[in-house]
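re: ur question from yesterday

yeah so i grabbed the chain u mentioned. its 200 aa long if i counted rite. heres the sequnce exactly as i have it in my notes:
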Amino acid sequence: MIISDDIYEKIIYDDLPFYTLAALSDELKRLSIVVNGVSKTYAMTGWRIGYAAGAEEIIAAITKYQSQNTSNPTSIAQKAAVEALNGPQESVETMRQEFQRRRDVITNMLNAIPGVTCLKPQGAFYVFPDVGSYYGRSFGGKTITNSAEMATYLLDESNVALVPGGDFGHDDHIRLSYATSMEQIVKGVERIGEALGKLR
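ran it thru and got these structure tokens back, copy pasting raw so excuse formatting
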């Protein structure tokens, strides 16, 4: 079986098309459970509305399991999700364009920091810069040796919260979200650059 997490299907950049695995062949359709929700596309994080599509017997089993293990979302959240999915979609494209603009700014700024490299993501709203060139350097008597220590150092020294890349299998990296204002992005990356510049 394949679980295809399509939660970022509408947040894709540079005119790249979206494909779900289930649409590629009849065999993949039979083997796939597609999961999605309204939290990313419609900025409804916290409303706790998600859904799954797959073979009828699989969805029936999921429904039985879910009904015994979690409470149901409120009727208000369900009605809001239906309206988001069926209503006008212009705001989704406006948001996608703004995320692309923020992505371009944050990746350009990160790549301008000496020793940092950052690929430009093709979707979602996270960047994953490589900061491994700073490992082995110190500030205030503390040497940075991994992404968890880097995350702590940047939180303490630059007041920027981020996630260690080791949690995602790449310890030379850190993960930042750009689902915030452009002003906060610019300020945060400038602070990161200043903090990294203090490491010797």
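noticed a couple things. Strands lie at 2-5, 32-37, 50-53, 126-127, 138-139, 142-143, 163-164, 174-177. also Residues 91-197 form a domain with the Aspartate Aminotransferase, domain 1 fold (CATH 3.90.1150.10).
anyway ttyl
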